[in-house]
Write a structure and sequence with these properties.
Blueprint lengths: L10 H13 L16 E2 L1 H9 L3 E4 L9 H12 L7 E5 L10 E2 L13 E5 L1 H11 L8 E5 H13 L10 E4 L5 H7 L1 E3 L6 H11 L6 H20 L4 E6 L8 H11 L5 H12 L6 H8 L9 H11 L2 H17 L8 H12 L5 H22 L14 H14 L8 H14 L9 H14 L6 H9 L14 H13 L21 E4 L24 E4 L1 H7 L5 H9 L4 H9 L5 H8 L3 H20 L26
């Protein structure tokens, strides 16, 4: 007889498994509606079809973009018997001459000769499942089911108990977990789902000497195995098949309709399919975009590549499309918000007869966008997405620069007016959402202002009204949004040195090596004398830019007076005051820092920032002379001498 008293489970695991034994009985819940049972498909079959090249993707779909948390959510939904949607597959074969390019699940262009379907809806979900069970050797990510957590989630629903909150049902790890550790915690590695029965036999063998073996055996055979079988082998996902004889030309249009009726795709993704259809598949917008940011093209579009990587990411191609729409809708006297519906209407009207003219327009706007990004970073202080005051500013700037080009002028010819518009848009408070009605209004207004100095756009007048008195310092209480990010951009446009780096070697705050930090540190607001100012702790009045290393290390919890004393060990007071000016800290605010006087500091710094905002939003008095601001011309960037 085996000795079953050698080991014992920890109390939490013991309680969970015993509860399963008492309360849980196997139920294979069928979540598929009656009318779809005939086409319900196991996940194993779906993955096998995709991995073998039987099912492929059209390139006009957006590429795989899901992050690990989205994948974990999908897996949890399956394990909890939630409906994860259906997949739409166009039945076809390798002999059919397709009018569009296709790719397999690994993004390869060469496939097997046994193609049986093209996936029109479900790419993100299918690719996620594939990557869960087929580990990528270059960037491995291992997904695990926490069966204790799953059991507790189900038990809570079945018996309405107050089981304390458990960890996630599914989690991912960049490293493969130790096998014994997995057994001990009842984790199952989904990349071994093909051999799940063998894994479970090893799991039971691991627990063979435990006194709770009876409960463990039940837990493995009647809970874990049942859930894995349901996940892997049961027909749980409806697959809707389009007839193989459908006209290939209609496939992109079907894709477009599907994705506008359900989960909204990015307008750029929809336009990829729309233009493919309009041009009889001659226009491959996704391919054109990939070419624009390809590393081989960096000599042509260096700013585009840099900002795509570091600042805007997947928003950038959509910004180009929105900029094109804004410009052409104004040109054709039908200004409208660059919504998906309006963009598609305009593109139908403009390119239906001559779709190839789109290619020339696209190339021109890619170049204009590169200039817009250069201006954004070097002139307006936007160096990563977190500090872009509003995503809608970029497409509006692109359209305005396109108007400048149409007048055969350069940015320098209108830089004072464009500067005034930009800062007015930021500080007017009108650019809050990713798409606003003000975008079209501003492009139209700037077009008129370029030709008539008296026709100042309304957004500028609105901004001036908003900041017309000392009381407007209250607007700077903000802890987020366009105004907060706008002030950060103003600081960045000064090309500041790191205020918190107290060593002899000063450092410029550039690129990803930057973050916001408190001038009066967070811990001060727990003190009795500062608690009343807590609402200002995270406001822009108490924030500035610093390099990430100094933010995390050197500054720590120094009070301003202590920070200044550290700086004085290596720098003169004059040098320190010069450094502080770029952070909008004047002599009065400097004195407040010396005395750790937060109220005086707020008032002093608020006046400096308010004055700077007013200067930036006032229309230029002379159109021929550059305005006297601290902002540096993009052709002659400021270079600090080290102090």
């Amino acid at each position: 007889m085996r000795n079953l008293t050698k080991y014992k489970l920890d109390k939490e695991t013991h309680d969970t498994i015993k509860e399963i034994y008492k309360k849980y009985r196997p139920t294979n819940i069928d979540i598929i509606a009656e009318e779809t049972k005939s086409i319900a498909t196991p996940i194993k079959e779906i993955i096998d079809n995709a991995s073998s090249g039987k099912w492929i993707f059209p390139v006009f779909q957006r590429p795989y973009v899901w992050n690990p948390s989205q994948v974990e959510g999908l897996l949890e939904s399956i394990l909890l018997n939630y409906f994860i949607g259906s997949f739409l597959v166009w039945k076809t074969d390798s002999k059919k001459d397709l009018p569009f390019e296709t790719t397999d699940i690994d993004n390869n262009r060469s496939f097997s000769k046994n193609i049986s379907g093209i996936i029109l809806d479900g790419r993100q979900r299918i690719t996620s499942l594939y990557r869960v069970v087929k580990i990528d050797s270059e960037t491995p990510l291992y997904y695990y089911i926490n069966f204790q957590s799953l059991a507790n989630r189900i038990l809570r629903k079945k018996i309405h108990s107050n089981v304390k909150k458990q960890s996630s049902i599914v989690f991912s790890s960049e490293k493969e977990l130790d096998e014994n550790d997995m057994y001990k915690k009842f984790y199952f590695p989904l990349y071994k789902i093909y051999q799940y029965k063998d894994v479970l036999n090893k799991l039971k063998d691991y627990y063979k000497d435990y006194e709770e073996y009876k409960y463990i055996n039940y837990f493995v055979d009647n809970f874990i195995k049942e859930k894995l079988k349901h996940f892997w082998e049961d027909p749980i996902v409806p697959v809707i098949n389009l007839h193989k004889d459908i006209c290939p030309d209609l496939v992109p249009m079907i894709f477009e309709i599907i994705n506008t009726k359900g989960l909204k795709l990015n307008t750029f993704d929809i336009l990829v399919a729309h233009l493919a259809y309009l041009s009889n598949f001659d226009i491959n917008l996704r391919k054109m975009w990939n070419k624009a940011i390809d590393h081989k093209s960096r000599k042509i579009y260096p700013e585009l590549k840099k900002v795509y990587d570091n600042i805007l990411g997947v928003d950038l191609p959509l910004s180009i499309i929105q900029g094109m729409h804004l410009y052409y809708s104004i040109e054709e006297n039908v200004p409208s918000v660059p919504s998906e519906e309006n963009i598609l209407k305009l593109y139908d009207k403009r390119y239906k007869i001559e779709p190839n003219t789109f290619k020339n327009d696209w190339q021109n706007f890619v170049k204009i966008t590169e200039k817009a990004l250069e201006v954004m970073e070097d002139r307006y202080g936007v160096f990563k997405k977190a500090f872009l005051p509003a995503t809608s500013l970029l497409p509006t700037l692109i359209a305005i620069l396109a108007e400048v080009n149409s007048l055969h002028k350069s940015f320098v010819d209108f830089q004072n007016k464009i500067d005034t518009w930009y800062w007015s848009a930021v500080f007017s408070g009108e650019y809050k959402a990713s798409t606003t009605t003000h975008m079209a209004e501003d492009v139209q207004g700037m077009k008129k202002w370029f030709s008539d100095d008296k026709k100042i756009p309304e957004v500028i007048n609105n901004a001036i009204s908003r900041w017309d008195s000392e009381k407007n310092i209250d607007n700077l209480k903000t802890t987020r949004g366009a105004i907060y990010k706008g002030v950060i951009s103003l600081i960045r446009s000064n090309k500041p040195l790191d205020l918190f780096l107290t060593t002899k070697k000063t450092k410029s705050i550039i690129g990803d090596n930057a973050d916001t930090d408190h001038i009066f540190p967070e811990n001060m607001f727990e003190e009795k004398n500062y608690k009343k100012y807590k609402e200002y702790k995270e406001s822009i009045l108490n924030k500035t830019l610093s390099s990430v290393p100094s933010n995390r290390g050197q500054k720590n919890k120094l009070k301003p007076s202590e920070l200044l004393k550290k700086l004085e060990k290596n720098h003169t007071q004059r040098e320190i005051k010069e450094l502080l000016k770029d952070h909008f800290i004047n002599d009065e605010a400097f004195n407040a820092m010396e005395n750790d006087d937060f109220e005086a500091f707020l008032n002093a710094r608020g006046k400096v920032i308010l004055k700077e905002i007013r200067k930036r939003i006032m229309p230029p008095h002379s159109l021929t002379q550059p305005r006297n601001t601290t902002q540096h011309d993009i052709t002659r960037p400021n270079k600090h001498n080290t102090i």
